[in-house]
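HUMAN: Now follow token order:
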Amino acid sequence: MTKRSDQTKQNFIKGAMILLAAGLFNRLLGFIPRIALPRIMGAEGVGLYQLSYPFLTVMITLITGGIPLAVAKWIAEAESQGDSKRVKYIFRTAMLLVTSLGVLLTALMLLFAPWITKHVLPDARVYRTFMVMTPMLLIIGISSVYRGYFQGKQNMIPTAVSQIVETLLRIVASLSFSFMLLPYGLEWAAAGAMLGAVLGEIGGLAVLLWKYYRDKSRIKQKALSHPDEKAGKNIPVLRKLLSLSIPVTGSRLVGSFSYLLESIFTVRSLAAAGITTGIATAQYGALQGMIIPLLLLPTALTYSLAVSLVPSLSEAAARGDHALIHKRLHQSMRLALVSGAPFVVIMALLAEPICRIVYNHAEIAPMLQLIAPVGIFIYLQAPLQAALQALNKPGTALINTLIGAVVKLFLIVQLASNADFGIYGALIAINVNIVLVTLLHGISVLRFIGFHMKVLDFVKVGTSMIIMGAAARFTMNHKPLSMEWVNLLLACTASVIIYLILMIVMKIIDRHDMARLPLFGAWFK
């Protein structure tokens, strides 16, 4: 392995923490439009904006699917063997495949947009938003290959920087365009918000291109003076990429297609319960545009863990190092559990002040209270799914996801169409899906490699959550200061400090774990 690759390659935890820092920064910044958009165009406008995304997700999954994962996995293996030519073959093949699919599906979306928005999506007013978002297919597809390339080299910095640039551009552009286009109606305001998302993706891709071609010129210069001793093997790269990417694409397609059907079934089921289309769109907008983003805030960590876990486990599996596989997976699961638990407590117990302060819509707090407890299953699901994929078991992840999707859609139709449940019926269905898929993934990992979390870890974290929750409620109920947002911030800060102290006392985390934290880690070294 070259000296430069040693300098740019981050170890598993460091790579995860780089993406965590960028992810947290992006999630916090991402709440600016989440907070501002409902105030600009209301829950109904947010609903129109959100209704376009499930279809986009399906198309992106068809284009990229498991390609970034496959690129990261095979490049990591080639790097571990010092085979730079195979790295080049893998990258070029993946890029050609993704670009071809992107051009084809973009053309089909533009051609059939009127029919899709009228007959497939539940609200025909999404047409303008749908048209504006079509360029994202090709942009995101190309970006995903570059991200897979850098992740395979275990260099997470380009991905992190591109995410930050994309978020900053999207925030400024989405809010500006939605505000400027609002006088022309909610449809145009939602389309303006989507246009901002397109510009953000262009900015993120520009960063990845700059980083790739800068590194490529350095590699060329080094290759001229130190030619590679290893020649790349003439292997069927496309077939190897597809062997992993197709099952992963299938698994993700099940998830994204169920997300599309979830949006369609939810709005249509609410209409069957006697709710008008406008109100049903607004309720769906509140769920997907306000409640779910709060719940997914800690997934900045689980995403970074999953991205770093795939190449790390792939290298360990290639060497047959089962001890390292168990170690990395345990690190991921423990970090996901410990970091996600405080969010669950705060969202469940302080839902009303959070929704009132963040969105100015206190009436949606019961939705957050209902879905918050299953958040811990979401945070554990990502490392488990990444482990199945890295261990060449994507078919198992596909079956688990399919089972959960079928159960969820069945429950949405049965419960959301009942006037007694309404939108809460859809929430119950989503909760059941999250718990079921996570448990199935956990059972699968246990069956394949014998890995399971220690029960005592759950007991310790659960006990700490109860004590933390009591501290948060005590602080909030006594209202030490006059302003509610200050009391909320005080309650969150005090309870999280207590939780961290308990984690350290119970030896769930130690000084070495704290030293890995971005920004604050130097204090503990």
Q: What stands out?
A: Confidence is low (pLDDT under 50) at residues 1-10, 223-234. The longest helix spans residues 12-63.
